[in-house]
């Protein structure tokens, strides 16, 4: 997980968790000791050989890593231009990249002597991943979820129950993710002695954005070795891709695949936000493209907020991208120009979803379909010998009802 630092962009955050003017730790006094304890524990274990060996063992034997990279030949043919490759995070145990991060944090919780895990979830995917790993390690698991989300995401609530987790429906505010986040923080303050707060994306107060990125970076590190050998095998030359594309909700699958590539300036990095019904419709979740700097979830980042700093309602056909902020490192990569950000609408994502099903026999998550949509737009602007690597962050079985309803 360690990274030898020579590049002023990829070496961040600094000791206080800043990525330029973003990141940091905006928390009350009551949480400060818990956060400090977590920071110390993570810094101690991140380079510990036994910790790293166990993490790698779990990734290999429980998750099924390394995930393959697949040349989507027919999809590329139809797009007409660059060759599209898919990093198959959908083939992980539980069907997405989220498992990589929850394993790392659960291992840390065990070493810190915290037998109780709390989490918040909107779409329920992070709740399921957390419940999974708590079952695996015999940890108590409490998941906070807005009552509106509990209603909308029934199958994931059922999964969490089967895995032995307690789901606490939150009835305050808009009864969605924001409210669940507040309840989780309240729980943490009250039960800090025995409780570990397991965050599901590269957000939250320092050290979470760095820690989650480090755990997810296994995705990009695998690509660094897989891509040259696969391209050589296909007669395209031993090299890295020209562009790496990933969808951005909170930004963890994108940071995971981007991070090892930051130091390779020839590789373009493109994050794709949910443009919903259009970037100018007011119904989207594009925090970087349409947000402004603010504080959310304990860090300074780009936030979708009104003139009074109130977080606004977001919209996306994919529940996993429906988050009013974004990880602070993305705000920084955007500001420095090292990564570019684009939007894909609900319509474009749906179209890409169906195309991948029909042409490659792969049912992608609606989140990942946003990245595929952007790759399909990008490919015709590139040469046939150029390469786009898409992070296929998850599988779409969970989305078939949403898709049927949208198509009806
Ligand atoms: C949760 C989720 C996302 C969005 O989260 P990030 O932190 O932005 O990666 C994307 N894809 C899938 C499949 C997810 O489950």
TrEMBL record:
Domain Tryptophan synthase beta chain-like PALP positions: 64-394
Modified positions (N6-(pyridoxal phosphate)lysine) in chain numbering: 98
Pfam name, any one: PALP
Catalytic activity: (1S,2R)-1-C-(indol-3-yl)glycerol 3-phosphate + L-serine = D-glyceraldehyde 3-phosphate + L-tryptophan + H2O
Keyword Nucleotidyltransferase: no
Keyword list, A-Z: Amino-acid biosynthesis, Aromatic amino acid biosynthesis, Lyase, Pyridoxal phosphate, Tryptophan biosynthesis
Names of required cofactors: pyridoxal 5'-phosphate
Highest rank taxon of the organism: Bacteria
Functional pathway: Amino-acid biosynthesis; L-tryptophan biosynthesis; L-tryptophan from chorismate: step 5/5
Function: The beta subunit is responsible for the synthesis of L-tryptophan from indole and L-serine.
Protein name in the entry: Tryptophan synthase beta chain
Species for this entry: Corticimicrobacter populi
